[in-house]
């Protein structure tokens, strides 16, 4: 790959990924007009799995034969797809897509919290503690806790926090147990999304029939959410990781709330409260500090400095 393409080509994929994952909150909102939350999640995962399976078949990528590998990928699928997707879909029945996307932007804070508690692979450094505290304050600002979560259903708010907690656990789980196996990225994505669809399947079969009109726009949103948002998006994501690393790839979570907010205001007529963007900025600031990206600015030493 030419040097110029390598240095700038990833940016196009990055912006497309931010647009795809940012618009997923809009597509989920629209799909919920006709389907129960668990139905939206199942079809999102099933269509994503089918898309990834086609890519693997076309590229003739070999699938692993070790059952343990598939069990590990199923674990990743539970925490990264089945549980959080269901929780987000449930919550979006009661909160705006704007709020859901901003809370989703706090995922890096939850990931670091999981590394400190569940996995114990991160040391309690000053910038980590400061960043976590600032990030948590940002979440509270987004939720307007001084007025009792504003107009939001407390159960929906808890579902959103539980969803990003699942992401916080799932990311380190994949890094610890799956990354060392050097599984092709397309296969890992299929293992996660496909197994997640199987986890959700029994609940989907027990769910009620569609609750609204199955219009073409609704079906388009559902198909796009699955095939693009849970299928092709993962291919873009792992391509960015290969080109510029996971740190930049994961920072796309800072772009998705911006996309979701614009779409929510323009297309859904949602109202943006002053404390939501303010809280979002505080969340991002906390995440950047906790990751050590602002150490020089704060006068703190980097880990590799003596």
Provide structural commentary.
The protein has 306 residues and is mainly alpha-helical. The chain has one domain. The protein contains 13 helices and no strands. It has helices at 3-31, 37-59, 67-91, 97-104, 107-117, 126-142, 154-177, 185-206, 216-244, 246-250, 256-267, 275-290, 295-298. The protein starts with a helix and ends in an 8-residue tail after the last helix. Residues 1-5 have low confidence and may be disordered.
Q: What letter string, H or E per element, gives the SSE order? A: HHHHHHHHHHHHH
The helix count comes to: 13
Integer average pLDDT:
87
Taken as a percent bin, the fraction of beta residues is under 5%
Alpha carbon gyration radius: 19 Å
Helix content: over 70%
Task: Please give the number of β-strands.
Answer: 0
**What characterizes the major β-sheet?**
none
Number of domains: 1
**What are the low-pLDDT stretches, counting only 5+ consecutive residues below 50?**
1-5
Shape: globular
Structural class, please?
A: mainly alpha
- Straight-line distance between termini: 37 Å
């Amino acid at each position: 790959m030419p040097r110029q393409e390598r240095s700038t080509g990833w940016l196009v994929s990055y912006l497309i990924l931010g647009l795809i994952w940012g618009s997923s909150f809009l597509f989920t909102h629209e799909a919920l007009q006709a389907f129960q939350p668990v139905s939206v999640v199942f079809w999102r995962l099933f269509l994503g799995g089918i898309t990834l399976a086609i890519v693997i078949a076309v590229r003739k990528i070999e699938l692993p034969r070790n059952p343990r590998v598939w069990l590990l990928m199923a674990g990743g699928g539970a925490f990264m797809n089945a549980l959080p997707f269901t929780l987000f879909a449930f919550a979006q029945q009661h909160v705006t897509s704007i709020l859901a996307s901003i809370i989703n932007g706090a995922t890096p804070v939850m990931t670091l919290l999981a590394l400190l508690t569940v996995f114990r692979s991160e040391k309690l450094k000053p910038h980590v503690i400061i960043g976590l505290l600032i990030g948590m304050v940002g979440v509270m600002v987004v939720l307007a806790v001084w007025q009792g979560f504003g107009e939001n259903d407390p159960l929906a708010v808890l579902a959103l926090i539980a969803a990003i907690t699942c992401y916080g656990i799932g990311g380190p789980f994949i890094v610890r147990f799956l990354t060392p196996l050097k599984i092709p990225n397309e296969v890992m994505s299929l293992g996660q999304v496909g197994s997640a669809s199987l986890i959700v399947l029994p609940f989907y079969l027990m769910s009620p029939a569609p609750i609204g009109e199955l219009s073409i726009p609704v079906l388009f949103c559902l198909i796009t959410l699955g095939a693009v948002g849970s299928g092709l998006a993962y291919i873009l994501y792992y391509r960015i990781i290969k080109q510029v690393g996971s740190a930049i790839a994961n920072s796309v979570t800072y772009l998705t709330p911006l996309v979701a907010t614009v779409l929510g205001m323009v297309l859904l007529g949602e109202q943006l409260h002053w404390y939501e963007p303010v809280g979002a900025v505080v969340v991002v600031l906390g995440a950047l500090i906790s990751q050590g990206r602002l150490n020089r600015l704060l006068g703190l030493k980097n880990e590799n400095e003596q």
